[in-house]
Amino acid sequence: MKANCWIGKQDVRVETVADPKLLNERDAIVRVTSTAICGSDLHLYDGFVPTMESGDVLGHEFMGEIIEVGRGVQNLQKGDRVVVPFPIACGSCFTCQRGLFSVCENSNPNAWMAEKLWGHSPAGLFGYSHLLGGFAGGQAEYVRVPFADVGPLKIPEHLTDDQVLFLSDIFPTGYMGAEMCNIQPGDTIAVWGCGPVGQFAMKSAFLLGAERVIGIDRFPERLRMARERVGAETINYEEANPLPELKEMTGGRGPDACIDAVGMEAHTPGFVGAYDRAKQALMLETDRPNALREAIMACRNGGTVSVIGVYGGFIDKFPMGSMMNRSITIRTGQCHVHRYLKPLLERIQNGEIDPSFVITHHMPLSQAPEGYAMFKDKQDECIKVVLKPH
Ligand code: NAD
Ligand code: ZN
Ligand code: ZN
User: Are 28 and 145 in contact (CB under 8 A)?
Assistant: First the structure.
């Protein structure tokens, strides 16, 4: 089959690889009809996630048709149309039973690698390094889905791929980012990053009852989407410094909660940016955490900072004093996608949201390398790319 493979830093190629096979009773094989490129894929593309190997098949946002199921999968049949969550979860361990699917204790066969770096291992993820299981991803014609009796969600025929594909990751991720803010009536929520994840965090903040939502970015087309499609107010951080601006907009108090939807590759102008880039290049700091620093400093006393941007390792100049002295709560995590699938599918069916609004580009899988370059460099006002393998 054809699959989009990580070759090296900023080098992905569509190559012919072996077709996936059922390995375990609880596996299924999915024929992928739609798959997307995520901001998390850019961290792999830019070489910031360790333990990638040349030839690894990328992709963790995908959906398609079940073409084979193992004997242990009773709830799916050939021909079912499904969306697959990006974390792989067994459904029955200590953490899965508590709804913490992205930290499943049974799905990472390379747990020892993650334990070295992080103390304990989270779940395995599709197409996301050997540290997180070495699973082949879904930017491919076919993919093996482990624990297929737990993850995949069946999709009603009348909904299009574009409407439901993002249930695999970015809609639940944005939603969880907003949910972690414990939004109360009258709240103002600020969101760093108006990429696809930030858009869903902003939209979800409104769905959960926020009165005002403020999006922060520097790309006009992303800020425009936040205003026109989500109803947010915006700050272009190249035109105004977010900290004084947010104070001004909130009567001096600061937003009730701040969401970091940027992660480890934050763009950081000026001296601090040069400092972070140099330390990251020398491997003295793994991540560039400028959005997170700002989110903490901006948040009102006693507020919440919700971190859905992905971090890999260790960060520098972390404003712990600001957090501690001002009673800030931090909440974070890879999204526990499984728990949001049904409720968010319902919101799509009710017409409360049509997640396809973030899509700017459709391409055949064969153009994945162009898609990555375009998404990374924001060429042609690219916000979200959907790849079609067939
Ligand atoms: P993206 O790269 O399209 O969006 C990031 C946005 O942040 C860009 O628009 C960029 O201009 C903006 N940005 C960069 N520096 C900034 C700064 N200093 N201040 C404000 N904005 C800044 O990516 P995406 O697909 O929207 O993903 C965003 C993040 O969410 C990534 O880190 C990704 O890995 C993460 N993510 C996490 C989960 C999860 O489960 N927690 C799931 C999916 C994605
Ligand atoms: Zn993703
Ligand atoms: Zn589990």
Answer: yes
Q: What pLDDT sits at residue 275?
A: 85
* 341 closest CA partner among 93, 82, 135: 82
- Determine how many CB atoms are found less than 10 A away from the CB of residue 171: 30
Coil vs helix vs strand at 188:
strand
Using the atom order of ligand 1, give the atom closest to the CA of residue 375. Answer: 3
* pLDDT tens digits, 243-279: 999 999 999 999 999 999 999 999 988 888 888 888 8
Placement of tokens 């482990």 in the chain: 146
From the CA of 259, the nearest ligand is 1
The predicted pLDDT at position 254 comes to 98
Cα end-to-end distance, the chain, whole Å = 11
Cβ neighbours of residue 79 closer than 8 Å, sequence gap 6 or more: 65, 66
In the reported structure, the alpha carbon of residue 215 is separated from the centroid of ligand 1 by a whole-number distance in angstroms of 12
The answer to whether the CB of 363 falls within 8 A of the CB of 385 is yes
Q: Write the pLDDT tens digit of every residue in 202-211.
A: 999 999 999 9
Q: Give this prediction's pTM.
A: 0.97
